[in-house]
Specification:
single chain; 658 residues; alpha/beta; 10-stranded mixed β-sheet; 17 helices; 21 strands; elongated
Length: 658
């Protein structure tokens, strides 16, 4: 097995030795291969990561990428942690890998089932450019210049501090831009302007991090972050590039431009140079494919383009007349190019492909799967042979790879030569007829397709008209409903204002309310306090005012202490009606301040929203009842006080001696 470019650096072959990648501590068989020597080791997951980071191998090879990561997210994280020049290669293929044993046998690599032997096989295969590179990132890199610290106060006034940071970001962004320009890298810039400069600047650079002359750093007021742009998924790319058959467009002159187009019509690459000679251009073309057609955008074909054609023994193509600039722009509108020369070369290749497209498709339809289509296309197009004769020739070579060296074919007679020439011509004419029939069929199919598209467009147009009408109707309906809603809203606001005015008529001043009630209905107002707490008393005072002489209803009289009772006593209520029992401390304070207290059951109370009223005669009866109880309580206290004084006096008298 020949050594390849992969052996210019170290290759790591890795296979799981024990444990499971989803577990805590898997171990790996590691083989380090430099083309001559092999080193073997068993390492932990952490040590493997450290070895990759320190040694920076060209390739980390494995037979299954999910032996290095438990799932897709972990695999992306692993790929992002690899050094810039290190590739992860799955030697068994892409999404549907083959067994490692089969791949090793095909390429003549020693194989064994031991993990260390599998790791060595993976390393040797990757060194021979066997396998698929696993990639989760594009060749585009984002370089972000941003603030290195918060714009809060930092010892200066905030405006000056913010202006300094934004100015530093702007200066650093310009330095990065200058370095990218000096390196000749293509990029797009997006900045966010703020007071005094930039808050951040993002450069989307066409290149990998190792190609960019800017490094990650954080310095004072600014920081630079570098991240590769992720793909939508995981992509596989073969290590060894195939040299497929292609169509080549050439635009000669002081600046020579070349475009490569695949047999499927896809633009594969484009190139231009003012300095390279013809040998360099030919080498560039050879690296990218094997030309079937070499094309020019003018007629007659320039001598330089003709030399390129003869170098590859390819067919030539030129337009019937020089291609107009507007047509070339239109044909290349979907592909990128740097200058007019590249555009002209690309247009020549694409028009040549258009000319031969039906022929390529016809040949591809006739070639069996076991044969390479490009090889047959090249001989049919460039060699002016029929598909059938090329296939017979190829199959004959396969059946008889070696002919006897002693066999000497006899020379054909003139009649036999003429017959052979006529047979070849007949084959070409039959092939041409087949081409024409297939072209007619394709055009008929395209016409049918266009008719279907036209009918579909008409139906779509009718649907759009109906849709527009329905939208207009719904918009009018919506506007009518909005007007109705607005009218209802205005009416509701008017009713709310009216209700507020009615409530304001009920919420009379205390003294006025009592006077009116006494004159008209013999009622007195009652002010409700939800709980016997300071907050509830303050809330009632704020809502409707508590003044001296009020009748106060405690909806829940339990739990109050001396300070709460004192706050209520300061109001000077006429009577306190209670639901529940007062604490001894609260009862004592109210009694000391001569505040009558009576059970709420003694008075019939009627409530409307926040308002309450009671009959005046029942309130008077409750007060009279309290006064009777208070008189008895006072007498009991006085009697107890006299008894206490007598007891204390007797206790202080000395005992007389007899």
């Amino acid at each position: 097995m020949n050594r390849t470019a992969a052996l210019d650096a170290v290759v790591f072959g890795v296979d799981i030795q024990s444990g499971d990648v989803r577990g805590d501590a898997p171990s790996y068989a590691l083989v380090v291969f430099d083309g001559d020597e092999i080193q073997r080791d068993v390492v932990s997951r952490r040590k493997l990561r450290r070895r990759i980071e320190s040694d920076e191998p060209a390739i980390v090879a494995t037979d299954n990428m999910y032996e290095l990561a438990a799932d897709k997210d972990q695999l992306v994280h692993f790929l992002g942690s690899l050094p810039d020049e290190t590739k992860l290669v799955q030697v068994t293929g892409d999404e549907r890998p083959e067994p490692l044993s089969r791949v090793a046998k095909r390429h003549g690599v020693p194989y064994g089932k031991d993990p260390m032997q599998e790791a060595e096989a993976a390393a040797r295969l990757a060194a021979a450019n066997v396998g698929q590179e696993v990639s989760a990132f594009t060749d585009t890199t984002e370089v972000k210049v941003a603030r290195g610290r918060s714009t809060g106060k930092g010892g200066w006034s905030e405006d000056r501090y913010t202006r300094r940071i934004h100015g530093a970001v702007k200066t650093t962004a310009r330095e990065v831009e200058s370095e990218l320009d000096a390196a000749g890298l293509e990029y797009e810039r997006d900045v966010t302007e703020k007071y005094g400069g930039f808050s951040n600047a993002v450069f989307r650079v066409e290149g990998r991090p190792q190609d960019i002359p800017v490094s990650r750093r954080r310095s004072g007021d600014t920081r630079i972050e570098i991240e590769r742009v992720r793909r939508d998924g995981i992509e596989f790319r073969p290590l060894a590039k195939r040299r497929d058959h292609v169509v080549v467009g050439v635009d000669p002159g002081t600046t020579t431009a070349v475009a490569i187009v695949g047999l499927d019509g896809e633009v594969l690459d484009v190139y231009s140079s003012r300095t390279n000679d013809r040998a360099d251009v030919i080498e560039w073309i050879i690296e990218r494919g094997r030309p079937v057609v070499v094309a020019a955008d003018v007629t007659p074909m320039p001598e330089t383009v003709e030399k390129f054609r003869r170098s590859f023994d390819a067919a030539g193509w030129k337009p019937d007349r020089d291609l107009p600039v507007d047509e070339k722009k239109h044909r290349t509108r979907d592909d990128a190019y740097d200058n007019d020369h590249e555009r002209d070369a690309m247009a020549a290749a694409l028009y040549a492909f258009d000319h031969h497209e039906s022929q390529f498709e016809r040949v591809a339809s006739k070639v069996p799967p076991q044969h390479e289509v490009g090889r047959v296309v090249a001989r049919v197009v460039a060699g002016d042979e029929s598909v059938e004769s090329v296939l017979r020739d190829i199959e004959g070579d396969d059946e008889q790879p070696e002919e006897s060296e002693s066999h000497q074919p006899r020379e054909l007679t003139d009649d036999e030569k003429e017959i052979k020439r006529l047979e070849a011509r007949t084959d070409r004419l039959e092939s041409h007829v087949d081409d024409l029939k297939q072209t007619i069929q394709q055009k008929n199919e395209r016409l049918d397709e266009k008719d279907k598209q036209l009918e579909k467009a008409r139906q779509e147009g009718r649907r759009e008209v109906r849709k527009d009408r329905e939208v207009t109707r719904l918009q009018r309906r919506n506007e009518a409903l909005e007007r109705t809603v607005e009218e209802e809203r205005e009416q509701r606001e008017e009713l709310a204002e009216k209700l507020d005015r009615l409530k304001s008529l009920w919420k009379l001043d205390h003294s006025n309310f009592a006077d009116v009630s006494e004159k008209r209905q013999g009622l007195t107002s009652v002010k409700v306090v939800e709980q016997f707490t300071r907050d509830a008393i303050e809330d009632a005072d704020e809502r409707f005012g508590l003044v001296e002489g009020d009748v106060v209803l405690l909806r829940d009289a339990s739990g109050a202490g001396r300070s709460t009772a004192k706050r209520l006593a300061e109001v000077g209520p006429r009577v306190v009606l209670r639901n529940g029992n007062l604490s001894d401390a609260a009862d004592e304070v109210l009694f000391e301040h001569d505040v009558p207290v009576a059970p709420a059951e003694m008075v019939g109370i009627q409530e409307v929203d926040e308002l309450a009223v009671a009959r005046e005669d029942e309130v008077e009866d409750a007060i009279a009842d309290w006064e009777n109880r208070a008189e008895d309580r006072q007498k009991e206290q006085n009697s107890a006080m006299v008894d206490q004084i007598i007891s204390e006096h007797r206790a202080e008298r000395p005992v007389s001696e007899e």
